[in-house]
Write a structure and sequence with these properties.
Elements (H helix, E strand, L loop, with lengths): L5 H10 L10 H10 L9 E7 L5 E15 L2 E10 L19 H12 L4 E6 L12 E7 L2 E3 L10 H16 L3 E5 L6 H18 L10 H13 L6 E9 L2 E11 L2 E9 L8 H15 L4 E3 L6 H5 L6 E7 L2 H20 L1
Parallel strand pairs: 10-11
Antiparallel strand pairs: 1-2, 2-3, 4-12, 5-12, 6-11, 7-8, 8-9, 9-10
Helix pairs in contact: 2-6, 4-7, 5-6
Length: 345
Amino acid sequence: MLPVGVEEGWRELVAGDPGGSWFMTPDWVLAWWETLGADLPAGAAEVAVWRDPGGAVEAVAPLLRTRLRLHPRAPLSVDCLTVLGSGAGAADHCGFPALPGRRAEVQAWLAGRARSSSLWLPGLDPGQAALLPPGAREVERTPCPRADLSAGTEALGSRQFRSTVRRYGRKLAAAGVSFRWVPPKEAGPELLDEVMRLHLLRRAALGRPTTFDAGRRPLHLRVMERAAQGTGPERGPALLVASAGGRVVGGLYGFLWGDTFGYYQIGWDPAWAPLRLGTAIIAEALVACADRGVRTFDFLRGTEPYKYRFGAVDRDDIGWLVPHGAGGALIGLRQRARSRRAARR
């Protein structure tokens, strides 16, 4: 339990950080700990907080002591410290929000932790490099494509692609499909369940696995609960929903934070594939975000070709390792092996 005022101060600290993201907020980090981390030892999580004499939060560093599996098909794992809220749950742009005057203290604190354990810090926002202790090695880059909405959506993608999207939009409208934006604090469990059901239906049709399933549902329900309790402007889980004949046939789920929307997952009935419903949902979400003053549509991790058809440009998250002992050396070998496999694809 954090002291009174820390959560709201933490939230506002991230909101004021140019590199701050939804995945750095207490709404995500603490929801992760309360659900996916519920079976971990009570002392596994540590949240360091720096405050000024008046109590204002000036830096937060959430860490988790865990065991990192070295290969998905081998039981070998090693102890390390990582960013609380990363890993399972697929968080991007992670990190430690801190005012410039506190960065040296956060760096020193992390250096102290690195003297007894390896620090494995995946998916960090690029601006986090200034907070890392000496000896930190860049061992991973994860492309996170994003589209610039500052000039609207009229110039996103090629002219031919935009024409195709409009054509299928007209066909969907003629078939009775409508779209609506569901803002934060109105996005509830029922719509989450519909998007998750349709996501699983689509993945099954493709024959592909997914982790956006019943095992992750408690995390997202708790995220919604926490976001609904926050004060201030609209931020948190939001959806773009497609309906036809009085039922939901598709939906896109993500997180609104400041002037950025992070697109997390999508689901739609495969029966609508001939009319490109999935593409239309993303296009409608882009328009809805632009209409609400969102400047960046973040597709999050992954280099699926469709993201670039919408005009997205890569921006890399960075994975850092501060190795300690044999365990740190093994994590380094793991990352080099993963990089070699990625280069061969």
